[in-house]
Amino acid sequence: MTMTAIERLQEWYAQQCNGEWEHRYGVRIDSCDNPGWWVKIDVVGTDLANEPFPPINQGVDAAGHPTEREWLVCTVKNRVFDGSGDGGKLETILKIFLDWKDKLRTRACT
Protein backbone atom coordinates (compact mmCIF):
# COMPACT_ATOMS: atom_id res chain seq x y z
CA MET A 1 0.00 0.00 0.00
CA THR A 2 1.33 3.44 -0.94
CA MET A 3 1.74 5.94 1.87
CA THR A 4 0.18 9.40 1.59
CA ALA A 5 2.32 12.52 1.83
CA ILE A 6 1.05 13.10 5.38
CA GLU A 7 1.95 9.55 6.41
CA ARG A 8 5.41 9.92 4.87
CA LEU A 9 5.93 13.23 6.66
CA GLN A 10 4.78 11.73 9.96
CA GLU A 11 7.28 8.90 9.51
CA TRP A 12 10.13 11.32 8.74
CA TYR A 13 9.22 13.49 11.73
CA ALA A 14 9.11 10.49 14.08
CA GLN A 15 12.59 9.45 12.88
CA GLN A 16 13.98 12.89 13.80
CA CYS A 17 12.54 12.89 17.33
CA ASN A 18 15.33 11.92 19.69
CA GLY A 19 14.37 13.64 22.92
CA GLU A 20 16.11 16.86 21.89
CA TRP A 21 15.46 17.73 18.22
CA GLU A 22 11.69 18.04 18.66
CA HIS A 23 12.12 20.58 21.48
CA ARG A 24 13.85 23.09 19.17
CA TYR A 25 12.84 22.11 15.65
CA GLY A 26 9.88 20.72 13.79
CA VAL A 27 7.30 21.08 11.05
CA ARG A 28 4.92 24.01 10.61
CA ILE A 29 2.02 24.15 8.18
CA ASP A 30 0.11 27.41 7.97
CA SER A 31 -2.20 29.23 5.64
CA CYS A 32 -1.13 32.52 4.08
CA ASP A 33 -3.09 35.47 2.75
CA ASN A 34 -2.09 35.16 -0.92
CA PRO A 35 -4.18 32.82 -0.47
CA GLY A 36 -2.30 29.59 -0.07
CA TRP A 37 -0.10 27.41 2.12
CA TRP A 38 3.19 27.94 3.87
CA VAL A 39 5.24 24.95 5.05
CA LYS A 40 8.44 25.25 7.08
CA ILE A 41 10.42 22.15 7.98
CA ASP A 42 13.58 22.39 10.04
CA VAL A 43 16.34 20.16 8.72
CA VAL A 44 18.93 21.15 11.35
CA GLY A 45 20.40 18.01 12.85
CA THR A 46 18.98 15.75 10.12
CA ASP A 47 20.55 13.98 7.15
CA LEU A 48 19.27 16.87 4.99
CA ALA A 49 21.08 19.64 6.90
CA ASN A 50 23.89 20.08 4.38
CA GLU A 51 22.24 18.76 1.23
CA PRO A 52 21.75 21.10 -1.73
CA PHE A 53 18.18 21.83 -2.76
CA PRO A 54 17.46 23.32 -6.19
CA PRO A 55 15.00 26.21 -5.66
CA ILE A 56 11.58 25.99 -7.32
CA ASN A 57 9.80 29.15 -8.49
CA GLN A 58 6.63 28.87 -10.52
CA GLY A 59 4.12 31.65 -11.16
CA VAL A 60 6.00 34.22 -9.04
CA ASP A 61 8.05 37.35 -9.67
CA ALA A 62 11.73 37.79 -8.82
CA ALA A 63 10.82 38.66 -5.21
CA GLY A 64 8.75 35.47 -4.87
CA HIS A 65 5.36 37.18 -4.95
CA PRO A 66 2.60 35.36 -6.85
CA THR A 67 1.88 36.69 -10.33
CA GLU A 68 -0.45 33.87 -11.39
CA ARG A 69 -3.40 32.07 -9.87
CA GLU A 70 -1.33 28.89 -9.53
CA TRP A 71 2.04 29.46 -7.90
CA LEU A 72 4.73 27.57 -6.00
CA VAL A 73 8.00 28.48 -4.27
CA CYS A 74 10.27 25.99 -2.49
CA THR A 75 13.72 26.79 -1.12
CA VAL A 76 16.07 25.77 1.65
CA LYS A 77 17.70 28.61 3.59
CA ASN A 78 19.41 28.48 6.96
CA ARG A 79 18.62 24.76 7.18
CA VAL A 80 14.88 25.27 6.83
CA PHE A 81 12.83 23.91 3.95
CA ASP A 82 10.44 26.73 3.08
CA GLY A 83 7.61 25.84 0.73
CA SER A 84 4.65 27.99 -0.21
CA GLY A 85 2.02 27.76 -2.88
CA ASP A 86 -1.54 28.44 -3.87
CA GLY A 87 -4.47 26.81 -2.10
CA GLY A 88 -4.17 23.61 -4.12
CA LYS A 89 -0.44 23.05 -3.51
CA LEU A 90 -0.17 21.70 0.05
CA GLU A 91 0.31 18.09 -1.01
CA THR A 92 2.67 19.16 -3.80
CA ILE A 93 4.84 21.09 -1.32
CA LEU A 94 4.99 18.10 1.03
CA LYS A 95 5.85 15.75 -1.84
CA ILE A 96 8.66 18.05 -3.01
CA PHE A 97 10.19 17.91 0.46
CA LEU A 98 9.70 14.15 0.75
CA ASP A 99 11.08 13.45 -2.73
CA TRP A 100 14.18 15.50 -1.84
CA LYS A 101 14.57 13.39 1.31
CA ASP A 102 14.09 10.16 -0.63
CA LYS A 103 16.71 11.14 -3.23
CA LEU A 104 19.25 11.48 -0.45
CA ARG A 105 18.34 8.06 0.96
CA THR A 106 18.51 6.46 -2.51
CA ARG A 107 21.91 8.05 -3.17
CA ALA A 108 23.21 6.84 0.21
CA CYS A 109 22.14 3.27 -0.59
CA THR A 110 23.95 3.09 -3.95
Name some characteristics of this structure.
five-stranded antiparallel sheet, 25% strand, globular, 33% helix, 110 residues
Which range best describes the helical content: under 10%, 10-25%, 25-40%, 40-55%, 55-70% or over 70%?
25-40%
Structural class: alpha+beta
Shape: globular
Give the strand content: 25-35%
Main sheet makeup: 5 strands, antiparallel
Rg from alpha-carbon coordinates: 14 Å
| Multimerization status | single chain
Count every beta strand, where a strand is a DSSP E run of 2 or more residues. 5
> Secondary-structure element order, as H and E?
HHEEEEEH
Strand ordering within the main sheet: 1-2-5-4-3
Average of pLDDT = 94
What is the terminal separation in angstroms? 24 Å
Number of domains: 1
Count of DSSP H/I helices: 3
Low-confidence stretches: none
Description:
With 110 residues, this protein is α+β, with helices and mostly antiparallel strands. The protein has one domain (5-109). The protein has 3 helices and 5 strands; from the N terminus they run ααβββββα. It has helices at 5-16, 21-24, 90-109; strands at residues 27-32, 36-42, 56-58, 72-77, 80-85. Strands 1-2-5-4-3 form a 5-stranded antiparallel β-sheet, with helices on one face. A hairpin with a 3-residue loop joins β1 and β2. α1 (5-16) packs across α3. The two termini are 24 Å apart. The mean pLDDT is 94.
List the helices and strands and how they pair.
Elements: H1 5-16, H2 21-24, E1 27-32, E2 36-42, E3 56-58, E4 72-77, E5 80-85, H3 90-109
Antiparallel strand pairs: 1-2, 2-5, 3-4, 4-5
Helix pairs in contact: 1-3
